[in-house]
Design goal:
By secondary structure, this protein is of the alpha+beta class. It has 16 helices and 13 strands. Helix 3 runs parallel beside helix 16 (about 455-460). It is globular, with a radius of gyration of 23 Å. Bound molecules: adenosine monophosphate and magnesium ion (MG). Adenosine monophosphate binds near residues 85, 116 and 251. Pfam families: SelO.
Length: about 500
């Protein structure tokens, strides 16, 4: 069933990981399987059998050629450094080469206690597994770099998180699971050779274009390349109202993919200070803080690379600082590109930023739903009648009407037809996101009634975010007051 493994991480020095076999579970059952992804990865599905698949995706049997391991990493959690975190409940089986020729990790999350588990049980509850499945696949469908979900199994065991819940294992696919915290792990031990080997591995895997170049320059270029991908990624998050919730350095992948969907959530009413995570008491990871936090995390990556950038410590700091200071500018450019696309603007004009800010201000003051505002704006691009539906989202409709007049004036400077514009705007403004209350309903039905139909429908809806999907309009609507989710949990 599995394609052949190409072991890469397992061939890095032994101190990069702990070899570890998944701990068997009593009664594995396949509850979700991503067939298109499996096909793209080269899985053989000819004699696909769900019972057999459950055995593989629970880790009860290790596929031939895999050398399971738990990766070592450190990380800053809410600003405080923890020198040894590592995969406490995840096992990397190995890497496979997809039909696109790219290498990807296959990891089982929830596979049992590893040498990095500390006080944890090494397991995952079903709720967070289904949440990660839905949200990571929705992100991918929206064109946002993300780890993917290949399969989910229940284990037949209960895990205790306050109350006992069904246990589950998620099979996660990533272009790698290397984090800023992986670099920190070696740097914290003064293991400069470890940092260098990791950097070389990352360049080969994610940034092969940096292959040439002199020593110091090469690692500075790596920092710059990671920075560019983070800037692009966070701008995309901001463009769909995504709040990661735990942007710790151990949850920041150097590949530029979104990783570790814990208490993540999508904002409904536009409010920049929105926080959902129950553990984020200070609002460190609020929606509006995400770009700044990304820069902070990149500074932590930079620190680990300093000895490789220049033998002269002051010189290394000067070069890295100069680079990091360009992050806001870089991010701003990415964000403007995202927002211009959302507003249907092809040309870049200096007045655009003020126009975008004015819309956001109107949305905040009018408590308008983030997703619906932009989607309806795409409707307005072709039909003046759609205006009523858009301004109705605002508690101060007159403010939005005034903004629309400014927007229309700005559109006069564009050359494309209204029809083309609307088409492009619909590809930049999803109609469907995994709304928190829908995710919650799907999880509750699966957990309490063993009913996966809501999960399956929601998955279908959110993996076609830009289509209208007649009959599924309900899924585009924000939560009613009684349905609202105010707090989300890590689920660990
Ligand atoms: P997370 O909050 O999921 O990003 O995890 C932070 C750290 O805690 C990582 O080192 C995880 O491997 C570890 N961890 C999270 N949940 C568990 C668990 N149930 N058992 C053992 N380790 C865990
Ligand atoms: Mg994590």
């Amino acid at each position: 069933m599995f394609p052949p493994f190409t072991l890469r991480y397992a061939h890095l020095p032994a101190r990069f990981y702990e070899s570890f076999k998944p701990v068997p579970v009593p009664d594995p059952r396949l509850v979700a399987f991503n067939k298109p992804l499996a096909e793209a990865l080269g899985f053989d599905l000819v004699n696909f059998d769900a019972e057999e698949a459950a055995v593989w995706f629970s880790g009860n049997v290790v596929p031939q050629g895999a050398e399971p391991l738990a990766q070592a990493y450190a990380g800053h959690q809410f600003g405080g450094f923890v020198p040894r975190l590592g995969d406490g409940r995840a096992v990397l089986l190995g890497e496979v080469t997809g039909r696109d020729g790219k290498l990807r990790d296959i990891q089982l999350k929830g596979a049992g206690r590893t040498p990095f588990s500390r006080g944890g049980d090494g397991r995952a509850p079903l709720g967070p597994v289904l949440r990660e499945y839905l949200v990571s696949e929705a992100m991918h469908a929206m064109g946002i770099p993300s780890t993917r979900a290949l399969a989910a199994v229940t284990t037949g065991e209960r895990v205790v998180r306050g109350l006992p819940e069904p246990g589950a294992i998620l099979t996660r696919v990533a272009s790698s699971h290397i984090r800023v915290g992986t670099f920190q792990y070696f740097a914290a031990r003064g293991d400069i050779e470890g940092v260098r080997e990791l950097a070389e591995h990352v360049i080969e895997r994610h940034y092969p274009e940096l292959d040439a170049g002199q020593e110091g320059e090469r690692y500075l270029s790596l920092l710059e390349a990671v920075m560019a991908r983070q800037a692009a990624l966070i701008a995309k998050w901001m463009g769909v109202g995504f709040i990661h919730g735990v942007m710790n350095t151990d949850n920041t992948a150097v590949s530029g993919e979104t990783i570790d969907f814990g208490p993540c959530a999508f904002m409904e009413q536009y409010e920049p200070q929105t926080v959902f995570s129950s553990i984020d008491e200070g609002g460190r990871y609020a929606y509006a803080n995400q770009p700044r936090i990304a820069q902070w995390n990149l500074a932590r990556l930079a620190e680990t690379l300093l000895p490789l950038i220049d033998d002269d410590a002051d010189e290394a700091v000067a070069q890295a600082t100069e680079l990091l200071q360009r992050f806001p500018e870089r991010y701003e450019a990415e964000w403007l590109a995202v927002m211009r696309a959302k507003l249907g603007l092809e040309q870049a004009l200096p007045e655009d930023e003020a126009l975008i800010e004015a819309l956001l201000t109107a949305m905040q003051r009018g408590h308008a739903d983030f997703t619906l505002t932009f989607r309806r704006l795409a409707d307005v691009a072709v039909s003046a009648e759609a205006k009523a539906g858009l301004v109705a989202l605002f508690e101060r409709p007159e403010e939005m009407s005034a903004w629309l007049a400014d927007w229309e004036e700005r559109l006069d400077k564009e050359s494309c037809t209204a029809g083309e514009r609307a088409k492009r705007m619909r590809q930049a403004n999803p109609a469907f996101i995994p709304r928190n209350h829908r995710v919650q309903q799907a999880i509750t039905a699966a957990m309490e009634e063993n009913d996966y139909s809501l999960f399956e429908t929601l998955l279908e809806v959110v993996t076609h975010p830009f289509d209208d999907q007649p009959g599924r309009e309900e899924y585009s609507r924000p939560a009613e007051p009684s349905e609202q989710v105010f707090r989300t949990f890590c689920g660990t």
